[in-house]
DNA sequence: TTAGGGTTAG
């Protein structure tokens, strides 16, 4: 940045110096100090002149100064004037000769088309066209609707006009093109060169202004009249779209083009662009195919490998990620630290810590590719796995290898020790961090707040927050407030939590789903149903979409407050209304809550709702049947077995046998009959 | 282009 600024400044000074020099040279010339001043005759005219003191000058004096000024101006611009005259003459000559050429006999178009080999190749069945109805350009102010239909039917005229308009008036170009089609312009009867020029011009111009749909529309028009997709057009369109970041449009245009059986894409860069677009749009299903086709056209570039590594990492395919590194080595393609780190992250996310460690060793051996991010990535993996000792060792190794830990490094260690309940270690890290001059930031402060909140020291957590507020550079963010709100809710300080909500809004932060979920969770203990409903309404009103977590919390709330009807309605109506995925465990959760409160009928009702959406797992049946047996709700257990059998769900034979035994023990013949029927249906052995 | 902090679920 600094260097860019310096060079920009130097450049500016150079420009200024040049301008001064030119001005000086011109003034020298004008004053005759270098060359004698030429004499120019200018007709005399009266100009009223006023001196600075307000005195009117004599007309002869003023005239002289005006003439001198005009003369000096003309003389200073003499080179420019010569150029202007020469170019003017050339332009006039061009117009005259061009018109003469177009009106020559044997050139039926009369529009000055370029004579290339393609222009002489007519498509089969092409009829001789009548001469054009005019050469003149489209008037700038003439609406397209007012253009003579004869002109619109003249392919050459349309191509020329559209091509010109494409340069600066893309909308008008598209409008003219569409008007021409409506007026009867036949794309299939045009010369190959003409239709190519027209389509390429329109497609590239439309993409240039971000109107990919119009570009696709033009390609569809060509297809409609039986013209095959031009591979060069597809290539330029895909490259342009990828460069402009219109990834989905790029894939859409490819999808359309690939429907053409005659089209073969041999341009490697097209596959390269498509792979990039697929990764960007998370269209991971097609990455492997694009890469395969790319390789069929030639050797992949480092960027192509980079995109494949991103794909592998995003889909959790650590094996593929590692194999890509091998492939790069074999192809003698340089593997940079970003690619290495991405593969490392893929291994870490897949909890393949041994593989990740091996990769770090490989990187060290390769030399010059490990950085702070490498160590942080692996350190996070160890922290997540609860291996804080190894994590700390890695931190020391990193330091011993001459790398300076960053805020992120300290963030990982601090959070790791906090999650591990090793407060002393966390404090030690914090002290090292401060001693080494590492600056605090929002994340580090938030991690500290989380540490105090976890230790139940909410007042201390709030103190840190207050300290943060004093520092302008690191204001609390949504996560900071989220943790503070939860900390207050967890100790029953709902009022404080609501104050925090207000404070975050005042700070210009928009509460997100987690913030609302935490507040809803805070309503459970004291059954603050009305407050929860208000919060839920506010959540929807502020366009925050509830999730499975929200519904899970609301189920707990309604169950705690024994609002069973509302709980059932929540899953029956509100869940689909909010388009939340009806996860089986939500039904399982509510069914368990019902059983715990001995609400047998409602439990079976919820279980029925579950079977309407999906097939309950054997594990879920086991949990519910186990509860029924434990709570001596044998009728409910038998009903659940019956519903499970109807839904072709699996029931563990041990659970079924246990239910049957309990019914026998409690002497419930009716229940036994229901159970036996269900067991037969479930193809389970009936021993009792 | 790659690394750190937040919610549910007995």
TrEMBL record:
What InterPro entries has UniProt attached to this entry? Answer: PPR_rpt, TPR-like_helical_dom_sf
**A Pfam match:** PPR_2
- What range does the record give for the signal peptide? 1-19
Q: Where is the region Disordered? A: 102-146
> Which keywords annotate this record?
Repeat, Signal
Q: Which PANTHER family match?
A: PENTATRICOPEPTIDE REPEAT-CONTAINING PROTEIN 3, MITOCHONDRIAL
What protein name applies here? Pentacotripeptide-repeat region of PRORP domain-containing protein
Q: Which organism is it from?
A: Symbiodinium pilosum
Source organism phylogeny: Eukaryota, Sar, Alveolata, Dinophyceae, Suessiales
């Amino acid at each position: 940045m600094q260097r860019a600024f310096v060079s920009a400044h130097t450049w500016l000074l150079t420009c200024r110096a040049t301008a001064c020099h030119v001005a000086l040279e011109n003034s020298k010339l004008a004053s005759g100090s270098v060359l004698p001043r030429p004499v120019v005759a200018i007709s005399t005219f009266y100009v009223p002149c006023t001196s600075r003191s307000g005195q009117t000058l004599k007309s002869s004096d003023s005239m002289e100064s005006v003439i001198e000024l005009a003369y000096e101006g003309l003389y200073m611009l003499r080179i420019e004037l010569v150029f202007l005259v020469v170019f003017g003459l050339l332009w006039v000559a061009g117009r005259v000769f061009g018109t003469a050429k177009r009106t020559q006999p044997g050139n039926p178009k009369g529009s000055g088309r370029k004579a290339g080999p393609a222009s002489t190749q007519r498509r089969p069945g092409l009829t001789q066209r009548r001469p054009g109805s005019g050469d003149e350009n489209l008037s700038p102010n003439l609406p397209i609707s007012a253009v003579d239909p004869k002109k619109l039917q003249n392919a050459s005229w349309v191509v020329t006009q559209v091509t010109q308009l494409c340069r600066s008036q893309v909308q008008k170009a598209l409008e003219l093109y569409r008007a021409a089609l409506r007026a009867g312009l036949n794309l299939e009867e045009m010369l190959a060169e003409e239709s190519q020029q027209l389509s390429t011009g329109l497609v590239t111009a439309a993409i240039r202004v971000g109107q990919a749909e119009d570009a696709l529309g033009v390609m569809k028009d060509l297809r409609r009249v039986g013209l095959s997709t031009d591979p060069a057009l597809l290539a330029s369109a895909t490259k342009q779209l990828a460069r402009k970041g219109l990834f989905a449009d790029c894939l859409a245009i490819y999808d359309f083009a690939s429907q053409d059986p005659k089209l073969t894409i041999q341009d490697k860069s097209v596959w390269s662009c498509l792979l990039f677009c697929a990764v960007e749009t998370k269209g991971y299903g097609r990455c492997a195919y694009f890469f395969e086709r790319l390789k069929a056209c030639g050797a992949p570039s480092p960027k192509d490998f980079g995109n494949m590594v991103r794909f592998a990492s995003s889909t959790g395919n650590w094996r593929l990620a590692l194999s890509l590194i091998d492939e790069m080595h074999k192809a003698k393609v340089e593997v940079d630290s970003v690619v290495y780190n991405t593969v490392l992250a893929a291994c870490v996310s897949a909890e393949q810590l041994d593989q990740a460690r091996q990769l770090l060793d490989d990187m060290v051996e390769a030399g010059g590719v490990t950085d702070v991010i490498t160590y942080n990535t692996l350190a996070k993996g160890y922290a997540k796995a609860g291996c804080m000792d190894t994590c700390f060792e890695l931190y020391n190794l990193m330091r011993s290898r001459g790398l300076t830990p960053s805020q992120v490094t300290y963030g990982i260690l601090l959070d790791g020790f906090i999650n591990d309940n090793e407060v002393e270690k966390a404090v030690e890290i914090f002290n090292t961090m401060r001693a080494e001059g590492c600056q605090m930031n929002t994340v580090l402060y938030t991690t500290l707040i989380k540490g105090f909140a976890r230790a139940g020291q909410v007042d201390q957590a709030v103190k840190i927050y207050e300290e943060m507020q004093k520092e302008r550079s690191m204001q609390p963010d949504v996560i900071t407030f989220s943790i503070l709100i939860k900390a207050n809710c967890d100790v029953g300080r709902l009022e404080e939590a609501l104050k925090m909500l207000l404070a975050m809004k005042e700070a210009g932060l928009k509460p997100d789903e987690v913030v609302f979920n935490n507040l809803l969770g805070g309503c459970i203990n004291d059954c603050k149903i009305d407050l929860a409903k208000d919060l839920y309404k506010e959540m929807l009103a502020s366009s925050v979409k509830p999730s499975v977590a929200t519904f899970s919390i609301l189920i707990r709330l309604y169950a705690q407050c024994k609002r069973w009807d509302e709980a059932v309605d929540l899953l029956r109506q509100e869940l689909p209304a909010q388009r939340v995925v009806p996860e089986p465990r939500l039904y399982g959760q509510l069914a368990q809550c019902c059983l715990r409160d001995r609400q047998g009928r409602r439990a079976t009702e919820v279980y029925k709702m579950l079977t309407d959406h999906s097939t309950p797992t054997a594990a879920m049946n086991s949990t519910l049947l186990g509860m029924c047996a434990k709570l001596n709700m044998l009728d409910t257990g038998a009903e659940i077995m019956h519903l499970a059998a109807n839904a072709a769900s699996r029931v563990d034979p041990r659970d079924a046998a246990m239910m049957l035994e309990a019914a026998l023990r409690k002497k419930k013949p009716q229940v036994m009959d229901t159970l036996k029927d269900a067991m037969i249906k479930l193809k389970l052995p009936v021993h009792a």
